[in-house]
Design brief:
With 261 residues, this protein is an alpha/beta fold. The protein has helices spanning 41-48, 71-76, 83-86, 95-100, 115-127, 143-156, 173-187, 226-229, 232-239, and strands spanning 3-12, 15-25, 31-34, 56-61, 64-65, 78-81, 161-165, 194-199, 211-216, 219-225, 243-248, 251-256. It contains nine helices and twelve strands. The chain has a six-stranded mixed sheet with strand order 6-7-8-3-9-10, with helices on both faces. Bound molecules: adenosine-5'-diphosphate (ADP) and magnesium ion.
Length: 261
């Protein structure tokens, strides 16, 4: 079992951030989490990574129940790619240094890294098509380049679970397709980690993500087979608007027919 969440809720004062979350991710399953801004996606990820503790209910990740396990050890097994969180850590470090430091999930490099780690980091950057800028400072990279560096960094620790939190934010159409193509390739590797792809756009959900968790107002609106949930009926109820959903290249492209006043 990769993730087992049982009736978990999280509140701040009298406000619920997450309510009655029940979710199981089995080995070999690939999930997408879909929800509008503020629906609780990142909060749920914070809980899975052990940065937020459920106010009630149970959370078990990679077979480790929270409260009975060293969270630092657990976090080493989870790669969490989120520009929003990681951007602030890196400025002048080179892409290569950032990837190497991912080995111990540490921020910044202490001491001289081992040759084999540098080689592995270079190989990861090459796989992602980043070799040409591996020595450039992070802050000089484009959004798409940064995103790929963060993915390479997360992979450096050989995680069992890789979470991609809105990885296409800020990417143009072409950079987005390029990144999605890489994620598709990664998902088909024999040693690939379990993947969770978080987005607010249906068309980013690649065919490999055959399960979907729909989040709304801190609650699970629906969970199940992606193709059962990616229908106009379900999406209209989910978003409270009329939509048109087109299926192209095994992805679901959504248009809202009329936005509310
Ligand atoms: N620590 C916190 N204290 C109070 N409210 C929070 C906290 N963290 C997140 N929220 C609120 O929870 C809601 C869900 O946020 P978030 O999980 O970031 O949404 P998403 O990632 O789906 O866009 C938002 O309304 C946000 O303001
Ligand atoms: Mg978020």
């Amino acid at each position: 079992m990769i993730i087992k969440i049982e009736d978990a809720s999280l509140w701040r004062g009298s406000k619920f951030l997450l309510k009655n979350i029940d979710w199981k991710v089995q080995e070999g399953e690939q999930w997408a989490i879909l929800g509008l801004n503020g629906s609780g996606k990142t909060t749920l990820l914070n809980m899975i990574n052990g940065y937020l503790f459920p106010s009630s209910g149970k959370v078990e990740v990679l077979g480790k129940a929270f409260g009975h396990y060293d969270l630092r050890e657990l976090r080493k097994m989870i790669g969490w790619v989120s520009t929003a969180i990681q951007e602030r850590f890196y400025l002048n470090e080179s892409a290569l240094e950032i990837v190497v430091s991912g080995k111990d999930a540490a921020i910044g490099l202490f001491g001289e890294p081992a040759r084999e780690d540098v080689n592995r980091a270079s190989a990861l950057l090459e796989q992602l098509g980043c070799s040409e800028f591996s020595n450039r400072p992070y802050q000089t990279l484009s959004q798409g380049e940064k995103q790929k560096v963060l993915i390479a960094r997360a992979l450096m620790a050989k995680p069992k679970l890789l979470i991609l939190d809105e990885p296409c934010t800020g990417l143009d159409l072409f950079a987005r397709e390029q990144l999605l193509r890489y994620i598709d390739k990664l998902s088909h590797q024999s040693d690939a980690p379990a993947l969770i792809y978080v987005t607010h756009r249906t068309e980013e959900i690649l065919p490999v993500f055959d399960n979907a968790l729909l989040m709304k107002d801190g609650k699970i609106f629906a969970a199940g087979r992606r193709d059962d949930l990616m229908t106009e009926e379900v999406m209209e109820e989910f978003l409270d608007v009329s939509v048109k959903l087109d299926y192209k290249d095994r992805r679901h492209w959504m248009n809202v027919l009329a936005f509310p006043e």
